[in-house]
Amino acid sequence: MLDIDFHAATLPEKGALVLLVPEDGERPALYLQADEATQGAVSRGLEAAEFSFGKGKSCVLPGPGAGLSRIVVIGLGKRSELDVSAAEAAGSAAWNALKTSTIGALGIDGLAPELAAHAALGAVLASYRFGLYRTTQKPEEKPRLAHLSVLASSLDSVQAAWPELAAIAHGVFITRDLVSEPANILTPAVFADRIAALSSLGLEIEIFDPEQMAELGFGALLGVAMGSDLPARMAVMRWNGAPENQEPPIAFVGKGVTFDSGGISIKPAGGMEDMKWDMAGAGTVVGLMAALAGRKARVNAVGLVGLVENMLSGRAMRPGDVVKSASGQTIEVLNTDAEGRLVLADVLWYAQDRFKPRAMVNLATLTGAIIVALGHEHAGLFSNNDELSVRLAEAGLAVSEKVWRMPMGEPYDKSLRSDIADMKNIGGRPGGSITAAQFLKRFVGDVPWAHLDIAGTAWSSKDAPGVPKGATAFGVRLLDRLVAAHYED
């Protein structure tokens, strides 16, 4: 993660400097310092460029003097419209302006302390790169900035706000790393080992092997795993941040299919390489739990992930097979590529049965149908509880991880009826993401529950503010915000 520290708002002696400047009101002190030290070169350059300080606008002033290699001014727009998301986007733009420099500073003295801290967060999140397996990349293709100096007024307040944000960024990076890993590296067992290593953060970790899951009756999850030579795992992570609180914990459950070939119902070859990130739901739960532990959240939370590989072999589950879930309900498997819901069925049942949570949220790259419905702008939200749905939607808006509530109901449920078992694992093409959610609902009991289908938001094919192309870690910040707003003491 980008090394970052905070200093008083004084002009650096060398390197590149980015200044975040609102459109209206007085110019920040650091801007005035830079203009004076460069004998008016900053103001003259901006005037010549007809720079307006509008939101998202930027102007580069190379070799302005005062020992600085360049000054980049990024407009913030009107102060009345400046919020956390805008501050983070400006910080992200600042990173992109500075990343080719060896020495860089970010001037945020024109912002309130909360916004200043979030601008720094935007820069950190934008700096993420997954380059573990690149050995021939040219030096000029790599970011050169390893350390960012953030220059702020109200320094004590900004520094006080930073540790929690840094912990959230760490959780986001953990998730992005996990989701970016190739499936030959991140097997279910290796995934479980990486989770176990997070006990250093204060998380209590339990890892379940296939024999233990068989004893628990995990016939659905283990049915998915049968076609692979790689044994399945389930991990349980507990964060007891409010030990005196006697209320049940809040629970988070993630689908962790480390590679999804589709099984016997094999996927087309085109795009199958993307199925390494069919474990993004589990990756998000892991990053979230790391964030809660890292910022010492005053909450009792539990995260559970089912980790399997869905392959085809002589042992693989076949279309038409019937499996018995941990709940005792039987499932006719008509499509082995609808495997994520089978993994979640056992883990959701176990979570509600063991922990009796006050609320439960699961995440999964569950259906292509949700991408047809919502594209890549929103995750699908399905729930049995209106209050939880509203809380999730509000949390998503606050951190720019948007969700959209989808319908559920008995008419959709009817399509899951089986002639030979308690249910089928698919309900046909119409409303495919909805019938998948209806399937999951059968394993949550009476717990307030929400299902986030993140198939369209877990991976991005283009850069966005704070979210470089690739794994997004969608859901880590959303759920951290949900906890902070509604479930912490």
UniProtKB/TrEMBL annotation:
Any one Gene Ontology molecular-function term assigned to this protein's record: metalloaminopeptidase activity
Residues annotated as the enzyme's active site: K267, R341
Protein family membership: Belongs to the peptidase M17 family.
The keyword Metal-binding appears for this protein: yes
Any one Gene Ontology BP term: proteolysis
Principal location: cytoplasm
SUPFAM superfamilies referenced in this protein's UniProt entry, alphabetically: Macro domain-like, Zn-dependent exopeptidases
A GO CC term assigned to this protein in UniProt: cytoplasm
Subcellular location: Cytoplasm
HAMAP family, per the entry: Cytosol_peptidase_M17
Gene3D superfamilies reported for this sequence: Leucine Aminopeptidase, subunit E, domain 1, Zn peptidases
Function comment: Presumably involved in the processing and regular turnover of intracellular proteins. Catalyzes the removal of unsubstituted N-terminal amino acids from various peptides.
InterPro entries the UniProt entry points to: Leucine_aapep/pepB, Macro_dom-like, Peptidase_M17_C, Peptidase_M17_leu_NH2_pept, Peptidase_M17_N
Cofactor details (free text): Binds 2 manganese ions per subunit.
Keywords attached to this entry: Aminopeptidase, Cytoplasm, Hydrolase, Manganese, Metal-binding, Protease
EC id: 3.4.11.1, 3.4.11.10
Pfam families documented for this protein: Peptidase_M17, Peptidase_M17_N
Keyword presence, Cytoplasm: yes
Native organism taxonomy: Bacteria, Pseudomonadati, Pseudomonadota, Alphaproteobacteria, Acetobacterales
Reactions this protein catalyses: Release of an N-terminal amino acid, preferentially leucine, but not glutamic or aspartic acids; Release of an N-terminal amino acid, Xaa-|-Yaa-, in which Xaa is preferably Leu, but may be other amino acids including Pro although not Arg or Lys, and Yaa may be Pro. Amino acid amides and methyl esters are also readily hydrolyzed, but rates on arylamides are exceedingly low
Binding-site list for Mn(2+) 1: D260, D337, E339
Gene label: pepA
Membrane-traversing stretches: none
Protein name as it appears in the record: Probable cytosol aminopeptidase
